[in-house]
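re: the backbone from monday

yeah here it is again, tokenized this time
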């Protein structure tokens, strides 16, 4: 029995693009360092949460990824 084909994902050229980064932010004003740190901290928290979720959902795959990363780190030690 043949597998049903998945719908094609839109290419990068077809994806909608946004010319402005965020509402209320203009090109001339420099980014506030405190705001940048807040956004970075939020991103890192979400990333850690996603890793924890992945570890709970796929523990064997996560263990294999951890072992591969450790082997990579051992390979390039000085």
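seq for it, each position gets an aa:
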């Amino acid at each position: 029995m043949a597998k049903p084909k998945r719908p094609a994902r839109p290419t990068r050229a077809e994806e909608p693009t946004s010319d402005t980064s965020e509402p209320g932010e203009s090109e001339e004003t420099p980014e506030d360092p405190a705001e940048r740190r807040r956004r970075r901290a939020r991103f890192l928290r979400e990333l850690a949460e996603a890793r924890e979720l992945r570890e709970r959902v796929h523990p064997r795959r996560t263990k294999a990824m951890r072992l591969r990363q450790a082997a990579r780190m051992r390979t390039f030690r000085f």
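The helical segments are 33-57, 59-75. The first helix runs from residue 33 to 57.
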